[in-house]
Amino acid sequence: MPNLPISQLPLAVSGQPESWMAIVNYDVDPSGITNKIYFSSLTEQFSGSSGTNGTSGTDGSSGTNGTSGTNGSSGISGTSGTNGTSGTDGSSGTNGTSGTNGSSGTNGTSGTDGSSGISGTSGTDGTSGTNGTSGTDGSSGISGTDGTSGTNGTSGTDGSSGISGTSGSSGTSGSSGSSGTSGSSGTNGTSGSSGFSGDLYRTTSSTLLAIQTGSTNTFVVGTNLGYSVAQDVIIAFDLSNHMIGMVVSYNPSNGDMVVNVDNITGSGSYSAWTVNLEGAAGGDGSSGTSGTNGTSGSSGTSAPTPPFALVYGLFAQTANSTIVSGTTTETTLINGGVGTLSVPANGFAVGDSFRADFGGVVNAANNQTIQIRVKTGSVILLDSGPQSITNITNNVWTLSINFTIRTLGGPGVASIVSLGAFNYNKTVNGVTEGFAFNTVNNTTFDTTVNNTLDVTVQWGSTAAGNNIFSDIFVLNKIY
Questions:
Q1: CB within 8 A of 123, min separation 6: which ones?
Q2: Which region among 78-82, 157-161, 196-200, 349-353 has the lowest average model confidence (pLDDT)?
Q3: What is the spatial distance between Cα 249 and Cα 235, in angstroms, rounded to a whole number?
Q4: What is the pLDDT confidence band of residue 430, given thresholds at 50, 70 and 90?
């Protein structure tokens, strides 16, 4: 290092960031040459503004920093703590005249000071020179190494929970699920003993009888029935033709019966009779004791609510009809059977509906016509008119007819609507052919009189290849 007079040493500027200041002791020999230099301390000034300076004395060497105390939990910064006791100052060298102090910077908020360490031993004082004017205070020296951070304080207790908000409105209910599957039926209880069988009376007879009063002579009915002498019976062909009388004799082994008739309706001779007691049927035998009920299964879907329409069979044909062949005469397609084709006077109700189903075999020569009519007596309910039918052999045909009563009363007031469909399957090519027809009769239909159903057929020519018959016919009341 070159020899410098004091006047040429650099000045430390107080309050300047990151400036350096060296405090030295030095000796001057008689020739004016600096021969000894003592470095007393070296400090660094950081960015915080300097606090107000106390009266400067010559600081001794800083003692070793004490270990930092454990940090408490951080809270709001309090005011500055009291400074620790200063270490013992070393002997002051001869003070030069103090220079002018620079302006003090604003103090930052001080943290709590740790206790000061023990001051180190002061260095040997050099010979005091003449005190010159004190220079401007230099920046603070470099801070000592920070002590180890203290252990964090425990966390504060959690605050209590806020009040819960009110519950939201309930959502709308979902649709009901479909009914569950019915459970298995419980085990049936043991059947009770059967009651005594009631007597049987309803039977039929194919014996040819004339409708007349007096003795019927012997006719054959069913065997093992409950008839006895002096019982009143009814022998009926239909609603318009029947006889009522008293049993004269009955043989349960062969079914021979003789009746003395005293009341008749209608006339003629017939061989398809229904025979039954004229009065009410006898009572049923006593019921046996009911068995224990099995466990009920789970409920299934509810059944429809009553009342229900009265639906039942009215008539069933039991033999083939007459074969209509080689004639242009209108001829019935119905033969004998069981039940009735008649509705008595004022026996209809509005909405009463019926269905007739026919089937049979048909043959037709080339380029022929056929006509179907549905009638009650002489009143035509439905008429197909002449329909083409050609070159068919032993083809199966079907005819379906539906009727519904619309209004009740005499001619011009009563009304009935009818719909028919006639079809046949051609064996030559497997094609189904046919025709449909419907009519509303509100001019000649009459519900105040007895009505008996008839269905007829009429060929358009007498060709030998034309023939038709029915082998099935059933009439049902469907509403």
A1: 25, 38, 40, 60, 61, 90
A2: 78-82
A3: 15
A4: confident
Among the listed residues 415, 401, 378, the one whose alpha carbon sits nearest the alpha carbon of residue 476: 401
User: Is 165 a residue whose pLDDT tops 60?
Assistant: no
| Band (281; pLDDT cuts 50, 70, 90) | very low
What is the C-alpha to C-alpha distance for residues 341 and 333, in angstroms, rounded to an integer?
13
Tell whether the model's pLDDT for residue 31 goes beyond 70. Answer: no
The pLDDT tens digits for 470-479 are 999 999 999 9
Report residue 410 as tokens.
Answer: 């005499």
304 prior amide bond cis, ω within 30: no
* CA 390 – CA 408 distance, rounded (Å): 41
Q: Enumerate the β-bridge partners of residue 313.
A: 476
Burial class from Cβ neighbours inside 10 Å (0-12, 13-18, 19+) for residue 32 reads: exposed
Half-sphere exposure (Cβ direction) of 30: Cα atoms closer than 13 Å: 0
Separation of alpha carbons 43 and 19, rounded Å: 9
What distance in Å separates the CA atoms of residue 131 and residue 271, rounded to the nearest whole number? 169
Half-sphere exposure of 7 (CA within 13 A, CB side): 1
CB–CB of 342/334 below 8 Å? Answer: no
Q: Are the C-beta atoms of residues 83 and 118 closer than 8 Å to each other?
A: no
- Between strands 20-28 and 273-277, the pairing is unpaired
Write phi, then psi, for 453 (nearest 5 degrees).
-75, 140
The overall average pLDDT reported for the chain is: 73
Residue 176 predicted with pLDDT over 70: no
For 284-304, give the DSSP string. PPPPPPPPPPPPPPPP-SPPP
Rg (CA), the chain: 67
Residue type, 264: I
CA–CA separation, 91 and 144 (whole Å): 23
Q: Which domains does the chain have, with CATH numbers?
A: 1-56+85-142 (no CATH), 203-277 (2.40.30), 312-477 (2.60.120)
* pLDDT score of 40: 43
Give the pLDDT score at 113.
43
What is the DSSP annotation of 310-342? --EEEEEE-SPPPPEES--S-EE----EEE-SE
Mean pLDDT of 365-380: 95
Q: What is the pTM of this model?
A: 0.39
Spell out where 161-215 has E strands: 203-205, 209-210, 214-215
Strand pairing partners for 317? 337
pLDDT surpassing 90 at residue 135: no
Query: Strand ranges (DSSP E) for 164-206?
Result: 203-205
Query: How far is it, in rounded angstroms, from Cα 455 to Cα 372?
Result: 7
Q: Which residues pair with 373 in a beta bridge?
A: 383, 456
Residue in the block written with tokens 């009429």: 458
